[in-house]
Amino acid sequence: MSKLIIVMRSGAEHEVEGIVGRSVMEIIRDAGIDELQALCGGSCSCATCHVHLDPACAGRVGDMQEDENDLLDASAHRTGTSRLSCQIRFTAAMDGLRVTIAAED
Length: 105
Hints:
The protein is of the alpha+beta class. It is 14% helix and 21% strand. It has one domain (3-101): Beta-grasp domain (Ubiquitin-like (UB roll), Roll), CATH 3.10.20. It has helices at residues 24-30, 66-73, and strands at 3-7, 13-17, 50-53, 82-84, 97-101.
């Protein structure tokens, strides 16, 4: 079983099953974690699924596309490890991926 580690804004951690082929946003949402709003449902038209990748894991998630980059530019909480969780497809190679839910804009 692959795992995804979700760090809440409070610092509390949740470890859930990482389902290969699903987006990280879908995995978090389906785990019942409502701190990640994901208002657009994964269509990359908002930034309410903004997460910060653990720097040790950042190289395992693939490159950011231009539309994701544009949406993150509007966030006051963007960092070098910011991503939209709806744009990250979970793979077996991502086992142990750790993401922190970004502060709300």
